[in-house]
C-alpha cells in the first residue's frame, strides 16, 4: 500500500496537494466542499497508477461502504474505523494479486526474448 501511495504522490502531486489544502480549509464540510478536488485526485490516480484501478474494481463494495460511512459520519469519522479496516484488508489482498499478475506478465514478456537469443542449430537434419 505504501508504494501505491508513493506513486500517487509522484504522479498526482498537484491534485493531492489541492485536496489536502481543501480538507484543511473546510474541516467541518470537507466531504461536500472538496468534491471537485477529490474527483480530480481520483481521476489522476486511476489514470496513472495501475494498481488503483485494479483495486477499485475488486474492492468496490468496501470502498462504497467506507464512502457511505464517511458521508454519514463526517463530524465523527472515527466511527468508520472498522469499515476502514475491511477496506484495508481487501486492498492489501488485491495488491498481492496485482503484483503477482504483473510479475507473470513480465516473465511472459521475457520468455520470447530469451527464446530469440537462444542458439540456433545450423547443422542439417540427418535422416
UniProtKB/TrEMBL annotation:
IMS import disulfide relay-system CHCH-CHCH-like Cx9C domain location: 5-49, 52-92
GO cellular component, as recorded: mitochondrial intermembrane space
Biased composition range(s): Basic and acidic residues: 101-112
Region (Disordered): 101-127
Biological-process GO terms, alphabetical: cellular respiration
PANTHER family: COILED-COIL-HELIX-COILED-COIL-HELIX DOMAIN-CONTAINING PROTEIN 5
Protein name (database record): IMS import disulfide relay-system CHCH-CHCH-like Cx9C domain-containing protein
Amino acid at each position: 500500500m505504501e508504494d501505491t501511495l508513493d506513486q500517487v504522490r509522484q504522479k498526482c502531486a498537484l491534485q493531492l496537494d489541492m485536496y489536502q489544502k481543501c480538507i484543511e480549509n473546510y474541516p467541518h464540510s470537507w466531504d461536500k466542499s472538496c468534491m471537485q478536488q477529490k474527483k480530480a485526485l481520483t481521476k489522476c490516480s486511476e489514470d496513472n497508477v495501475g494498481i488503483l484501478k485494479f483495486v477499485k474494481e475488486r474492492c468496490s463494495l468496501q470502498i462504497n461502504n467506507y464512502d457511505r460511512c464517511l458521508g454519514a459520519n463526517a463530524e465523527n469519522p472515527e466511527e468508520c474505523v472498522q469499515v476502514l479496516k475491511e477496506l484495508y484488508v481487501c486492498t492489501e489482498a488485491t495488491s498481492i494479486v496485482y503484483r503477482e499478475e504483473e510479475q507473470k506478465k513480465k516473465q511472459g514478456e521475457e520468455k520470447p526474448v530469451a527464446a530469440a537469443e537462444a542458439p540456433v542449430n545450423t547443422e542439417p537434419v540427418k535422416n
